[in-house]
Write a structure and sequence with these properties.
Shape: globular
CATH superfamily of the largest domain: SGNH hydrolase
Radius of gyration: 35 Å
Mean pLDDT: 86
CATH architecture of the largest domain: 3-Layer(aba) Sandwich
């Protein structure tokens, strides 16, 4: 018996050793599986997170605000250049489905910022007040700025410098006083104050103030854009700019050339005024002009020029202080 036990004992030891090795192998396998499982879980979590982030980004991406969808009321404290700029604004707004459109323009020929401020300070009934609520302009003589600003709850109030002074910063001394007065006296607390940036004269213009710019169109244009940036938009009360001057200069780089004025400085009643009015619409509402179809019946030939005009306007909104060369260098057949 003793000899039998001695023979069995080594066998038991070998068996125990084998069982021990099997146990260690099982633990190693389990750790490997757990590690693989954790890696798989982490990968899945990361992928899900990326998808969630993408979904969140798509859902929260801001959409462009469409201002004045149903109603728009605009008052210009201006001169003949605001008459040119607003001439077709009502019709363009109507074409784009705005239901209530009220436009007003306080007009004195060649009116400067200094004259506007003097008239405001003295409550002078010095303006012709043009108003348009149906597509036709109706005029009232001897109106003050006080009367016009209280006439409606305006959404937008524009101000501009006289054309000859528009590129001369030293003539803007009363601008802040005017802006503060408008901000204090507007009847709609949410009304925006927007600057109308005017245009340079035709190269052959005989306007007496063209000498202020060495009788050079590009010098005048550059002085205007530089003055707006350094003197106007630095004022926090100015909430936007209508870049009519740039839209028209863009158009001059097309086959249209330097033909947008009727006397060297006032706009041509067809293509010049239409381009300016389209710029007013785009700048104020923030909308694209691509879908605009209306053109004045007396200038129906404008339809042939719409691609060049719309390109000029769109580029002026995107780049308001420098000229964008037109891609329309040859007139349509």
């Amino acid at each position: 018996m003793k000899r039998y036990i001695q023979k069995i004992t080594p066998l038991l030891l070998i068996l125990a050793l084998l069982l021990s090795m099997v146990g260690c192998g099982a633990e190693t396998t389990t750790e490997s599986e757990e590690t693989s499982s954790e890696t798989s879980t982490e990968t899945t979590t990361e992928e899900t997170t990326v998808e969630e982030e993408q979904t969140t980004t798509e859902e929260t991406e801001p959409t462009k605000e469409i201002k004045y969808k149903d109603s728009l009321k605009v008052l210009a404290i201006g001169n003949s250049f605001s008459v040119d700029g607003m001439e077709y604004l009502w019709n363009i707004c109507d074409d784009q489905g705005i239901e209530t459109i009220v436009l007003g323009n306080l007009y004195i020929g060649g009116c400067t910022l200094d004259t506007h401020w003097n008239n405001i300070s003295n409550k002078t009934n010095a303006y012709t007040y043009y108003k348009n609520t149906t597509g036709k302009w109706v005029s009232t003589a001897s109106v003050s700025v006080q009367t016009a600003i209280a006439d409606e709850e305006w959404d937008v109030i524009t101000i501009q410098q006289a054309s000859g002074s528009s590129g001369r910063p030293t003539t803007y001394g009363n601008l802040t006083k005017i802006l503060e007065w408008i901000d204090t006296n507007k009847t709609n607390e949410n009304a925006e104050i927007i600057w109308h940036m005017t245009w340079a004269y035709a190269q052959n213009s005989t306007h007496k103030e063209f000498v202020n710019y060495q009788k050079n169109q590009m010098t005048m244009y550059q002085n205007i854009t530089e003055t707006v940036q350094s003197t106007v938009t630095t004022n926090t009360l100015v909430q936007g700019v209508i870049p009519s001057g740039t839209a028209l200069q863009n158009l001059r780089s097309s086959y249209v050339g330097d033909t947008i004025t009727r006397d060297g400085y006032h706009l041509h009643k067809g293509i010049g005024r239409y381009t300016a009015s389209l710029t007013w619409f785009a700048a104020i509402t923030g909308r694209s002009v691509e879908s605009v179809k209306w053109v004045p019946i007396n200038y129906s030939a404008l339809k042939n020029n719409l691609p060049a005009i719309k390109e000029a306007v769109t580029n002026s909104i995107q780049t308001p202080y420098s000229v964008t060369q037109s891609s329309y260098t040859e007139a349509p057949n």
